[in-house]
């Protein structure tokens, strides 16, 4: 069993209104040093061991998990299942 | 002419669409549950607004993986007219039938009000009853209607006349003030504003009715010429 942790973020250059609102709120809360914020998604998948796990994950991201028009993704693979 | 209105779990403008076709337009409409759908008997496909699958992951993303979308892709390649409104537009984008993607509205608010649109291309089977550059009034109701595509795609849309509707006063941050686009073949239209909610004067506007009338006129000319 493997645990795959996937981070999906808006591509740089794509305006992130949510990130901008987060940045402005942090500035108002007394954190003027925050000059930028981008909000993304985090997913954990539990997968059976598979010979071509990288290929499988890339295909999942391309077909469903990320939208390549606006989003980039990164992932890590860890041994075992998350409890 | 027979219109299929595809109903996904979470669709909520399906009955508006049905009413627009059946009562305002006077043609035949059928509500089709996405799992049962067999599109053989229909002449046009309507993808209604709403929140298919609760907008989980991304608006329209889960609906775009459903089996019916494969049938819709097949019908699209055969030239059948397909209209996606609001969440229906998002499904068309997520399924790759139209280019681009939707982001959250620039001001992060769900917006629900009347908007003025300019008909940029009246040479399509969806807009032939409008004048070129006609200003029309349709309601919008969306939180993720901020259309995005890169500059290359935008230039192609412009060059091919694929931008069908633009906002007169852009409410959501869409690139190029885009409110609706059509595919290169000219038979798949996606738009965020709701023509089906503007088909009778009593609803505040009947500017949407001409869109449905255009589709029927084109179909009559193309398939039942001489009748």
From TrEMBL, chain A:
Q: Name one GO biological process term.
A: 'de novo' IMP biosynthetic process
Record family assignment = Belongs to the PurS family.
Task: Please name the InterPro entries in this protein's record.
Answer: PurS, PurS-like_sf
Cellular location(s):
Cytoplasm
Fetch the Gene3D superfamilies from UniProt.
Phosphoribosylformylglycinamidine synthase subunit PurS (3.30.1280.10)
The role this protein plays is: Part of the phosphoribosylformylglycinamidine synthase complex involved in the purines biosynthetic pathway. Catalyzes the ATP-dependent conversion of formylglycinamide ribonucleotide (FGAR) and glutamine to yield formylglycinamidine ribonucleotide (FGAM) and glutamate. The FGAM synthase complex is composed of three subunits. PurQ produces an ammonia molecule by converting glutamine to glutamate. PurL transfers the ammonia molecule to FGAR to form FGAM in an ATP-dependent manner.
State the EC number(s).
Answer: 6.3.5.3
Identify the taxonomic lineage of the organism of origin. Bacteria, Bacillati, Bacillota, Bacilli, Bacillales
Could you list this entry's UniProt keywords, alphabetically sorted.
ATP-binding, Cytoplasm, Ligase, Nucleotide-binding, Purine biosynthesis
Task: Provide the reaction this enzyme catalyses.
Answer: N(2)-formyl-N(1)-(5-phospho-beta-D-ribosyl)glycinamide + L-glutamine + ATP + H2O = 2-formamido-N(1)-(5-O-phospho-beta-D-ribosyl)acetamidine + L-glutamate + ADP + phosphate + H(+)
- Pathway of action: Purine metabolism; IMP biosynthesis via de novo pathway; 5-amino-1-(5-phospho-D-ribosyl)imidazole from N(2)-formyl-N(1)-(5-phospho-D-ribosyl)glycinamide: step 1/2
What GO cellular-component annotations does this UniProt entry give? Answer: cytoplasm
Superkingdom of source: Bacteria
Q: What is its main location?
A: cytoplasm
A Pfam family annotated for this UniProt entry: PurS
Quaternary structure, per UniProt, is: Part of the FGAM synthase complex composed of 1 PurL, 1 PurQ and 2 PurS subunits.
As one GO molecular function, the record gives: ATP binding
In its UniProt entry, what is this protein called?
A: Phosphoribosylformylglycinamidine synthase subunit PurS
UniProtKB/TrEMBL annotation, chain B:
Q: Please give the function described in this protein's UniProt entry.
A: Part of the phosphoribosylformylglycinamidine synthase complex involved in the purines biosynthetic pathway. Catalyzes the ATP-dependent conversion of formylglycinamide ribonucleotide (FGAR) and glutamine to yield formylglycinamidine ribonucleotide (FGAM) and glutamate. The FGAM synthase complex is composed of three subunits. PurQ produces an ammonia molecule by converting glutamine to glutamate. PurL transfers the ammonia molecule to FGAR to form FGAM in an ATP-dependent manner.
Q: Tell me, what is one Gene Ontology molecular-function annotation carried by this entry?
A: ATP binding
Name the domain of life this protein comes from: Bacteria
Q: What pathway is it annotated to?
A: Purine metabolism; IMP biosynthesis via de novo pathway; 5-amino-1-(5-phospho-D-ribosyl)imidazole from N(2)-formyl-N(1)-(5-phospho-D-ribosyl)glycinamide: step 1/2
What organism does this protein naturally occur in? Answer: Sediminibacillus halophilus
Q: Is ATP-binding included in the keywords of this UniProt record?
A: yes
Where it sits in the cell: the answer is: Cytoplasm
Chief localisation class: cytoplasm
UniProt catalytic activity: L-glutamine + H2O = L-glutamate + NH4(+); N(2)-formyl-N(1)-(5-phospho-beta-D-ribosyl)glycinamide + L-glutamine + ATP + H2O = 2-formamido-N(1)-(5-O-phospho-beta-D-ribosyl)acetamidine + L-glutamate + ADP + phosphate + H(+)
The entry describes its oligomerization and partners as: Part of the FGAM synthase complex composed of 1 PurL, 1 PurQ and 2 PurS subunits.
Catalytic residues as annotated in Swiss-Prot or TrEMBL: 86 (nucleophile), 194, 196
| Entries under Pfam families matching the protein | GATase_5 (PF13507)
Look up the record and give one Gene Ontology term from the biological process aspect: 'de novo' IMP biosynthetic process
Q: What is its EC number?
A: 6.3.5.3, 3.5.1.2
Listed under GO cellular component are: cytoplasm
Per UniProt, the keywords (alphabetical) are:
ATP-binding, Cytoplasm, Glutamine amidotransferase, Hydrolase, Ligase, Nucleotide-binding, Purine biosynthesis
Enumerate the CDD domains for this protein.
GATase1_FGAR_AT
- Return the protein name: Phosphoribosylformylglycinamidine synthase subunit PurQ
Q: Which PANTHER family match?
A: PHOSPHORIBOSYLFORMYLGLYCINAMIDINE SYNTHASE SUBUNIT PURQ (PTHR47552)
Membrane found in the keyword field: no
């Amino acid at each position: 069993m493997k645990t795959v942790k996937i981070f999906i973020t808006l591509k740089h250059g794509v305006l992130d209104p949510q990130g901008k609102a987060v940045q402005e709120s942090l500035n108002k809360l007394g954190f003027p040093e925050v000059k930028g914020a981008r909000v993304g998604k985090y997913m954990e998948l539990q997968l059976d061991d598979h010979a071509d796990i990288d290929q499988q994950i890339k295909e999942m991201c391309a077909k469903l998990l990320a939208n390549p028009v606006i989003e980039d993704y990164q992932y890590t693979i860890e041994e075992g299942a998350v409890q | 002419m027979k219109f299929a209105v595809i109903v996904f779990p979470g669709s909520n403008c399906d009955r508006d669409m049905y009413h627009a076709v059946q009562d305002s337009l006077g043609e035949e409409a059928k509500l089709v549950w996405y799992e049962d759908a067999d599109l053989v008997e229909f002449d046009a496909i309507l993808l209604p607004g709403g929140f298919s699958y609760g907008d989980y992951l991304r608006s329209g993303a889960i609906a775009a993986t459903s089996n019916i979308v494969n049938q819709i892709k097949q019908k699209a390649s055969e030239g059948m007219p397909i209209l996606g409104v609001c969440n229906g537009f998002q499904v068309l984008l997520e399924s790759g039938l139209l280019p681009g993607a939707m982001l959250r509205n620039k001001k992060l608010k769900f917006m629900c009000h009347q908007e003025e649109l300019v008909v940029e291309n009246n040479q399509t089977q969806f807009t032939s009853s409008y004048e070129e550059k006609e200003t029309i009034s349709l309601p919008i109701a969306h939180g993720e209607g901020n259309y995005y595509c890169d500059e290359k795609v935008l230039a192609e849309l412009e060059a091919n006349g694929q931008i069908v509707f633009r906002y007169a006063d852009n409410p959501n941050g869409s690139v190029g003030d885009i409110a609706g686009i059509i595919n290169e073949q000219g038979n798949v239209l996606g738009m965020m504003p709701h023509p089906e909610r503007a088909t009778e004067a009593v609803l505040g506007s009947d500017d949407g009715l001409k869109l449905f009338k255009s589709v029927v006129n084109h179909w009559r000319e193309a398939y039942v010429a001489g009748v």
